[in-house]
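U., I forgot to send this yesterday:
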Amino acid sequence: MMKKIFLLTGIACFSLLSASAQKEPVDYVNPFVGTTNYGTTNPGAVCPQGMMSVTPFNVMGNVPENRINKDKQWWSTPYEFNNKYLTGFAHVNLSGVGCPELGSLLLMPTAGELNVNYENYGSVYSQETATPGYYSNKLDKYGIKCELTATPRTSLARFTFPAGKGNLLMNLGEGLTNESGATVRFVNEREIEGSKLLGTFCYVPDAVFPIYFVMRINKVPAERGYWKKMRPMTAEAAWDNTAGKYKLYKSYTKEMSGDDVGAWFTFNTTENEVIEVSVGVSFVSVENARLNLEKEQPFGTTFDKLRADARKRWNDDLSRMTVKGGTEEQKGVFYTAMYHTLIHPNILQDVSGQYPQMEGDKILTTNRNRYTVFSLWDTYRNVHQLMTLVYPERQMDMIHSMMNMYKEHGWFPKWELFGRETLTMEGDPAIPVIVDTWMKGLKDFDINLAYKAMYKSATTPGKDNLMRPDNDDYMAKGYVPMESQFDNSVSHALEYYVADYALSTLAEALGKKEDAKLFYKRSMGYKNYYCKDFGTLRPITKEGKFYEPFDPKQGENFEPSPGFHEGNAWNYTFFIPHDIKGLTKLMGGNKKFVDKLQSVFDRGNYDPTNEPNIAYPYLFSRFKGEEWRTQKLIKELLAKHFTTKPNGIPGNDDTGTMSTWAIFSMLGFYPDCPGVPEYTLTTPTFDEVEIKLDPKYWGKDKLVIKKEGNGDYIKEIKLGDKKYGKYLITHEDLIKAGEITFVTGNR
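Result:
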């Protein structure tokens, strides 16, 4: 009996090990992570850095099943995990952003009598599943199974209907965007084309742009037509019973325009009949949307093939880093973070190479990928450093995209969105991205032209400066004074200091000695803000005095904060990554610095969702004997804030920035000073990670990170086969070694 038990136990263990061994990186991804707790991700189908994403839209409708209603509060994502009332599937969406935009072209299947009012046609859903490149649910109201997949520029939906009457609705009036206005026309019985206006992201009313689409259905409908929400009318049209209501057009199929319009199709369906809907999009023209559809879904394409292709794309990209050891949960966190990091920036050009000019009306053509959605205030801190290391060919395309934006528009991007500059957040964030990339050896671009662009934004007077509108005082005084209580003046200056330090290092490398001195001196201007009374940075009024009354904690939980953007003095005081030595001296020496930094964590003043302070845990490693604090905090923060549950990101993912923090932290090294080609080391999560390197860029094909021992603290570091005695390492030394080993133990 005991032998049988041991045999069965052995078989079971072997089966579990075999199942685990057979899992690929893509199998660890959970697209539902970050879909609540304001993570603002979504579980829709998308390819790596693809233009197209198609996701369930469940944030509309005043119904009890929805906790969140986009029309009742500020909301910036098409999906919330705890909502259960679906009003369509949105095409082309943003992941991890803080302002509502895109999330339009709402495709909805229904059954029974035609109804085009989303308050009525929406449905509760169940049986929800998602994997990279695939999403599915069942609409309980109609008994319709919905499945979605995507290519880089198109989507394919597969709907399984019950017997009876089935409908397909393309709602062009609703979505996340604050813009309105659309045009749609029937091409034939099974195809429509049109456009919709998008834009006004983050309070920028002029930053608008059109999206063009073509939609095809694989079955001829029994009926088809348009709808329009009619404006309220009284005396002038008292006879019209459609005033203020949705009007159905059943015998008119030429063209329809308006703020709240759509197209509908009605079918006679048999039990479990499948109807497929293909959508192609473009930001250039309807013709290009059709070409994208024809090239990426040629005749004979099947849903299952596209789903398999999307899965392979994801698995290939995720497999550039393979891990050994760690728990299943940790692998899920790691690969899901990679998944989220690889959504933006995304491609903008069509299969023809055409794309819309940056801030212009021309249609231009590229022979490489043109990227868009540059949330640079967020991503300059770590996302582009990860792209440089693991996906250097894409980082080069991103650099060329930014270079071409300068050629087309006269400025590098700050927060670019589909060819429009939204100027969201502050700083000059393209500078550290480009400097960091070039310093690490990716130099296939015109660095002198790049320097010219950087010099322009660093020296142009404020009234003519798109990047630094308060540059006059910054250049003259070394800081930005407070002009109004909530003008974010300190945050502006701190971002300029980081950019100017990176610019000074580039000037030095290019032999521009005087420029290097100028920009280095400017980067030290943070000292003006240091207030010994509070031991923090503090706003300065235009009279040159410290602002009062002053509370370093004011600004918690996104309340307005004098001088600081989306945070308070504690979230920004240690954000001097380029001069920790200087900041330490201001604070009174090593011990006082370390104690004060530790108090940020002990007193709950650290915000894991706020970019300026996300590198705080790594600062301890700048002080000999204090490195253990970094190692302890990183493990605790990863365990507390990053999981494989829907709330498994601590807040807004900021187009992958929070996810990238987790990735680097789990790898055991972090780029804590943007623009400087160095990493701070910490205890890795996994026993071994192999990063596939591109020999074209790095001269070798892999970087291996190993952990020996089961402790949480680093006892020894080996670079290659040699002992390494520091906790700061240059990118060049890490790549050259090809292998780094962390020997761990107890403290």
